[in-house]
Amino acid sequence: MDLILDFERPLMELRRRIESLKTLQAEEGLDLSASIEQLDLQARRLQGQMLRDLSPWQRTLLSRHPQRPYSLDWISRLFTEWRELHGDRAGHDDAAIVCGFARYKGRPVAVLGHQKGRNTKESLKRNFGMPRPEGYRKALRLMGLAARFGRPIITLIDTPGAYPGVDAEARGQAEAIARNIMEMSTFQVPVICVVIGEGGSGGALALGVGNRTLMLENSTYSVISPEGCAAILWRDRAEGPRAAEALRITAKDCLNLGVADEVVPEPGSGAHRDPDGAAAALDAALERHLSELSQLDGPALREDRYARYRKLGVVLEEAERLAVIRAKLAEAAAREEAG
Q1: How many domains does the chain divide into?
Q2: Residues with Cβ within 8 Å of residue 221, at least 6 apart in sequence
Q3: pTM of the full structure
Q4: Residue 51's pLDDT is what?
Q5: What gap in Å lies between CA 211 and CA 302, rounded to an integer?
Q6: Do 226 and 198 share a domain, yes or no?
Q7: Contact 59, 250 (CB under 8 A)
Q8: Range of the domain at 186
Q9: Is residue 330 part of a domain?
């Protein structure tokens, strides 16, 4: 069943009216082209306005949309000769991460990403896209093979975060994430990371250390979910929209902060409405960045990655840092009083 978000309803209603008129015109032989053209113009204007006015929270909802393409959907559209690998060679396999080898434009590459489910059964199998330690170890095994044989690595990020269960912690969740981050920083092959949906916390970072980070227009990237942030700061998960605004989690925000290197535009009203069009846009960006990175040798790729992460963040003197903290606390207190 197609899920329509509240802010999508006016546009979807216009499109339904257009389709109804087209059907009536075909069945009854009436000339309704003028009315169809007028409604189509209204739909295009409304769509442009909707995309311009989307709030961070609305983009968060789009990044989680159940009809949005997942990793296997992108793989089927962008790559050929896909061969999936399983297991961490320690007795476990985690379906929340898919990985394997494929060809991109005829070139052998390694592809891995988070995978969610389309229905309850699939979601339980994939653990709602929240990997356990064995998932990250499986991913690292594949990336190690790719680095050994000189194959570029492409990661597809889409997770609310690593699974926080007791069993995952007991099997070394934090160590698995930290090891992935450490090892990915050393690979002497091109590494391109693409945030296709949610980029949540360390669960995303474990696949996110690359020479380039691309973000789809309606994806998000953050240290914590808006609801989790709201529960900590205001003790109310319903304040998620307020937290989304403060966290700067949208693709545009991440580009401005230097976290993302490029925002890949989504056609129409989102990748969930036109996955093929979105795949074409991502394909062009992937080809361009992979071509640029392929000009560098192994040590240069590692240094490029190191330099990229060294540039992230702003260092403040102690007095400046305290002033910023006080200003934020004062602003939060003022909002509390006003609310």
Answers
A1: 2
A2: 157, 195, 199, 204, 215, 249, 251, 254, 259, 260
A3: 0.82
A4: 66
A5: 8
A6: yes
A7: yes
A8: 61-310
A9: no
